Amino acid sequence: MYGWEAFERFCQKRLKLSSTISSGNKFYDPSDGVDNRHHTETSFPLMIDCKYTTKYNYTLNRKMLRDWVRKTGEWGKRFALPLRFAYEEGDDRGPFDDYVVSTFDDFQELIEIQEAHRSCSATPVTVVTEPNYRTEEQDQALKTLRKFSRLVKDPTAKLKLMQAVDLLEEGLPCRDTESPSSTA
To answer: N or C: less crowded end of the chain, CB within 10 Å?
Structure first.
C-alpha cells in the first residue's frame, strides 16, 4: 500500500468515514472519505479530500478549495482537506506532520460544538418545570412542512428542509392528547 493510500485509510478510520470508489475518482462518488451516517447521528457530516506529500510544501489554490466546498455542500456535507507531510516515501510510522484545512466558518462551528459539549457535560443541571405542550397550530405547521418536503426534488434542499423540521420539532414541547387545553 502506498503512503497516500495508508493516509486515506488512517483518515477514514479516525474520522469514522466510509471509503469511496476508486479513491473518489468517480463523479457519482467523489472524495477520499465520506460520512454516510443519518443526519440525526452526526452534527457535522464530513467529506474529505486527502493530500500526501514527501516534499516540504504543498500548494493549495482558491478555485480548488471553493470547488470542493461547493461539491461537498451539494452532498449535504462539510469539506475538510487532511494533509500529511511524510519525510520518507511510504513511511507512515513517522515522522510525519498531519494538518487539516477547512473553511473558517466550519472551524468556528466545531469550536462552538466543543464548547457547548463541555458546558453541558461539566455540571449536570436538573430543571423542574410545569409541563408544556405544543399547540394545534404548531402541529399543523410541522405537518405542512413535512408535506412540502415531499414536493422538493433537489436532494440537498430536501435534506436541509428535513433537518430544519427535525430541529423545530426537537425545540418544541411534546404533543400530549391529555394537555390542559384539550381537556377543557
So the answer is: C
Residue 175 CA to residue 131 CA, distance in Å, equals 10
31-62, pLDDT tens digit by residue? 778 877 676 777 788 888 889 988 888 999 99
Q: Report how far apart the first and last C-alpha atoms of the chain are (Å, whole number).
A: 71
What is the C-alpha radius of gyration for the chain, rounded to an integer number of angstroms? 22
Residues near 91 by beta carbon (within 8 Å), at least 6 away in sequence = 3
Domain segments of the chain as ranges: 3-122, 136-175
Whole-structure pTM value: 0.56
CATH no. for 3-122: 3.40.1350
Peptide bond into 82 cis (omega under 30): no
Q: Which pLDDT tens digit goes with each residue over 102-142?
A: 999 989 988 888 888 777 655 554 444 444 456 777 777 77
Indicate the DSSP class of residue 26: E
